[in-house]
Design goal:
This protein is an all-alpha fold and 431 residues long. It has one domain (6-197, 283-423). It is built from 21 helices and two strands. It has helices at 6-9, 14-34, 44-47, 50-53, 57-77, 82-85, 87-104, 124-141, 150-169, 173-177, 182-188, 193-211, 214-231, 234-238, 240-264, 267-277, 288-299, 311-314, 326-358, 363-387, 405-423, and strands at residues 115-117, 120-122. Helix 8 packs parallel to helix 21, helix 17 crosses helix 19 and helix 19 (326-358) packs antiparallel against helix 20.
Amino acid sequence: MSPVTPRSSRSIDWPLLLIYLVLVGLGWVAVYAASYSPDAPAHPLSALSFSELMAFNWFKQLIWMGTAVILIAVLLVVDYKAYDTLAYVLYGGMIVLLLVTLVVARPIAGSRSWLEFGPVRLQPAEFAKFTTALAASRFMAGINLRNQNWRDQAVLAGLTLLPVALILASNETGQALVFAALLLAYFREGMSPIILLLLAAGGIILLLALLVPKLWLVGGFTVVLAVAFLLNSRLWRHHLPLSLGAWALVISMVFGVDFFFNNVLQPHQRQRIEMLIDPGKDPLGKGWNVTQSKIALGSGGWFGKGFLNGTQTKFDFVPEQSTDFIFCTVGEEWGWAGCLVVIGLYLTLLWRILLVAERQKSVFSRTYGYCAASILFVHFTVNLGMTMGLMPVVGIPLPFFSYGGSSLWSFTILLFALLALDAHRKQDLVR
């Protein structure tokens, strides 16, 4: 065993640890404000019993924070080589847990994604991101993606898509989408940028198919392809079959989007996309969350209304404000300046993680660092985007801010596993 000793503890990246503590602390303040009731006792810790305190999200979040400290100690003390050695074992165990969740979990808000242990509920999909990052890092440490070996890329795709399929089966689309973040880490390790470009192009085409008349879209793409052929005669001789295949694929995507939208997506998923395309379509119904979220953010002005003075927050206008829409509290009570500070902290966190990843001597540790940064980046970007009405509401928490034990634990594990690896970066890993 090679735990973090007093000497090696000096190798822990203290700036990264400090940012984590600040974000978790500010997150708790935001959760307290979001769940604050004007009718509650002035000193709830002394005025209420434990069972009464458990009715408040801010108190339960304190308990999750306390258990996270124990979790951090375990992550830093465990042999750092275990993250590499046990990567596939943890991944396999999580796949089994996701399968069990599909069978035994009771439906909550239309999804089967929570395991209940008495008063405690855990969401395995949150932790699956960590185990998938470990397994993918272990696999990539033994190959070279730059060789463009399609067998290796197929195995890597399978490792990534298996948990995605199980999470989609539990009707947790938002959590499944986060796994796309791992493509950024794969790209860093040598995956062909063509794959990223093709996926991005496919997403843009599908979005345009929802916004633009289909005949216009097909006609425009056909004209662009025809002009390209006229300007470059080599396309006729060398790339005609490939170009015609791409044209046929685009046509099928454009005309197939309606079938996918109406027959594959769930009603609530269609509603989210409709609200993104036309936010004013149903402001008092389907668009209520986003409408109230934007009102809360805008009402804070430059410096906010002050702690516990947010009217949108106090009168529960924004649903799920302690979880998915926690950033509304920041905007309303802390204002534009507070939002800028929080965003700056997240950007600093991501920048620091990338610095830590780049100084690793092992491919496994470096790849895992990029996986962690990518997952946190997508969570941060999508959560703020849906809060501001720029992205569909897909139920993705804001790391270290949103209320919830599964969320706090999973992001803590994701970060401190990297800190443990980094503390021993001068020593040899298995890979």
